[in-house]
């Protein structure tokens, strides 16, 4: 009997690779070998005849790929929480299941969010750059040297209030923030899920915002944590920045295109806001050294490392493989997207 074919667009680590390799008797495993992202042409060519495909967030799953794979394709397992690289409608219309890894990366991304908030408020990037550039001797201690807004007492506005946002709120409470507001696809409505019991029981007000305008006006810290969809693309643009407080900062841990980069550069140039810290940006990873955002001293940019702890990446790999195998066998996945 012919083996079931699966395509995997990365070499995996430890346990994950082992679980996959143990299935070699029953599966034909075609795996991208390079440490660089999988080439699209390789994926299109090798998808032919696959029953399952394990993809990274850098692999586009669209009609063309599904067409190339053929009608036997049963499952896509994505090594990510975000699924904006996947055409969900195309999957649904073909009855293809979609696995993802939304739970195991929550802590890692929430931790990074805290780092970014503090970097933006306390001018971390700017301070480090000055020392590295040898400017410290010219800037001796001064009562106002490199001062920035304090996290305690801040009102924190969440654009999107899912698991990662709520885990971030949990971490922010001991810092003494004053209030949290959040905007979801149901403005003014209480969050559907209360992952850590904070929506109902936090010691500070945690309230739904009725609009992006309200959130922009009231927040000292704006955290972009929503999914990228046609309605959230450039949700944060000139208009939004125009409404933010002058001492407010913005952090993006979701997807680059939710913030209009040109508008952000302008807002920073014109000191409409205090600072920004980004884990993601439009057109990543193609950010060259002369990109205007890199000329902004009050903007910190890191290369999409939200979930990059050793433990989390191991778990993401293992869960992705489990989702792939569950999809092949018609079993329950660790986490499955409801299409
Ligand atoms: C994901 O998995 O979608 C995240 O962007 C990782 O940080």
From TrEMBL:
<dbReference type="GO" id="GO:0005829">
    <property type="term" value="C:cytosol"/>
</dbReference>
<dbReference type="InterPro" id="IPR050223">
    <property type="entry name" value="D-isomer_2-hydroxyacid_DH"/>
</dbReference>
<keyword id="KW-0560">Oxidoreductase</keyword>
<comment type="similarity">
    <text>Belongs to the D-isomer specific 2-hydroxyacid dehydrogenase family.</text>
</comment>
<feature type="domain" description="D-isomer specific 2-hydroxyacid dehydrogenase NAD-binding">
    <location>
        <begin position="114"/>
        <end position="306"/>
    </location>
</feature>
<dbReference type="Pfam" id="PF00389">
    <property type="entry name" value="2-Hacid_dh"/>
</dbReference>
<dbReference type="InterPro" id="IPR036291">
    <property type="entry name" value="NAD(P)-bd_dom_sf"/>
</dbReference>
<dbReference type="InterPro" id="IPR006139">
    <property type="entry name" value="D-isomer_2_OHA_DH_cat_dom"/>
</dbReference>
<dbReference type="GO" id="GO:0030267">
    <property type="term" value="F:glyoxylate reductase (NADPH) activity"/>
</dbReference>
<feature type="domain" description="D-isomer specific 2-hydroxyacid dehydrogenase catalytic">
    <location>
        <begin position="6"/>
        <end position="337"/>
    </location>
</feature>
<dbReference type="InterPro" id="IPR006140">
    <property type="entry name" value="D-isomer_DH_NAD-bd"/>
</dbReference>
<dbReference type="GO" id="GO:0051287">
    <property type="term" value="F:NAD binding"/>
</dbReference>
<protein>
    <recommendedName>
        <fullName>Glyoxylate reductase</fullName>
    </recommendedName>
</protein>
<dbReference type="Pfam" id="PF02826">
    <property type="entry name" value="2-Hacid_dh_C"/>
</dbReference>
<dbReference type="GO" id="GO:0016618">
    <property type="term" value="F:hydroxypyruvate reductase [NAD(P)H] activity"/>
</dbReference>
């Amino acid at each position: 009997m012919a083996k079931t074919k699966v395509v995997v667009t990365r070499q995996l680590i430890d346990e994950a690779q082992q679980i996959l390799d143990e299935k070699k008797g029953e599966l034909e495993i075609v795996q991208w070998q390079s440490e660089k992202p999988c080439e699209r042409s390789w994926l299109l060519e090798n998808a032919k005849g696959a029953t399952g495909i394990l993809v990274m967030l850098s692999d586009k799953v669209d009609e063309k790929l599904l067409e190339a794979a053929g009608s036997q394709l049963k499952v896509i397992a994505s090594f990510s929480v975000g699924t904006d690289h996947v055409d969900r409608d195309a999957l649904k219309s073909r009855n293809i299941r979609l696995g993802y890894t939304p739970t195991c990366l929550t802590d890692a991304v929430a931790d990074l969010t805290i780092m970014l908030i503090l970097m933006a408020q306390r001018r971390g990037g700017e301070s480090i750059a000055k020392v590295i550039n040898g400017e410290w001797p010219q800037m001796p201690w001064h009562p106002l040297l490199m001062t920035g807004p304090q996290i305690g007492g801040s009102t924190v506005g969440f654009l999107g209030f899912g698991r990662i946002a709520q885990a971030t709120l949990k971490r922010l409470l001991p810092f003494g923030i004053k209030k949290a507001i959040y905007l979801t696809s149901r403005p003014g409505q209480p969050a559907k899920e209360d992952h850590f019991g904070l929506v109902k029981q936090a010691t500070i007000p945690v309230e739904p915002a009725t609009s992006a305008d309200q959130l922009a006006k009231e927040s000292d810290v704006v955290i972009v944590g929503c999914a990228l969809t046609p309605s959230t693309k450039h949700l944060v643009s000139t208009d939004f920045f125009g409404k933010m407080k002058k001492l407010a900062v913005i952090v993006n841990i979701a997807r680059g295109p939710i913030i209009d980069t040109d508008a952000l550069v302008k807002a920073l140039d014109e000191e409409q806001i205090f600072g920004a810290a980004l884990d993601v940006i439009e057109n990543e990873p193609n950010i060259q050294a002369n990109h205007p955002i890199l000329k902004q001293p009050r903007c910190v940019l890191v290369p999409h490392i939200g979930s990059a702890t050793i433990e989390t990446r191991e778990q993401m790999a293992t869960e992705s493989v489990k989702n792939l195998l569950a999809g092949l066998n018609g079993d329950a996945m660790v986490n499955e997207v409801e299409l």
